Automatic annotation (TrEMBL):
Lineage: superkingdom: Eukaryota
Gene this protein is translated from: UXT
Family, similarity comment: Belongs to the UXT family.
This protein's name: Protein UXT
A single GO BP: centrosome cycle
Subunit annotation: Homohexamer. Component of the PAQosome complex which is responsible for the biogenesis of several protein complexes and which consists of R2TP complex members RUVBL1, RUVBL2, RPAP3 and PIH1D1, URI complex members PFDN2, PFDN6, PDRG1, UXT and URI1 as well as ASDURF, POLR2E and DNAAF10/WDR92. Interacts with LRPPRC. Interacts with androgen receptor AR (via N-terminus). Interacts with estrogen receptor ESR1; the interaction relocalizes ESR1 to the cytoplasm.
Amino acid sequence: MATPPKRRAVEAIGEKVLRYEAFISDVLQRDLRKVLDHRDKVYEQLAKYLQLRNVIERLQEAKHSELYMQVDLGCNFFVDTVVSDTSRIYVALGYGFFLELTLAEALKFIDRKSSLLTELSNSLTKDSMNIKAHIHMLLEGLRELQGLQNFPETSHH
């Protein structure tokens, strides 16, 4: 039977293990989820800008003054429309603001915005890697703490 000081040491280690596990699940994994969700949203924005770039490049190649297309009015309700002047385009800047640009200006804007979004996604990826490293480090520490409990006790003379 363990002596009271040894029992308290084992209980203290158990409490530390529980605190570390709670920190991992309540803080680090939550932070990791937030960072990865934010990065996914950035990837979605980047994909939309790249899709817009492809559309603009096709418009420049076609060199048509009119464009027949379908526009989504919402809830997947599409109507046919004619765009009479394809030399200019409205680009969403964010926060509900739109700017009318020439196709060349729009491409420059898209390149700059894509570059910024790529930098942001790279930063978020680094952040997620740091959080994963912290989780891994704490899990290794927990294994060591729990492993110490399983070692046979040596008697001190």
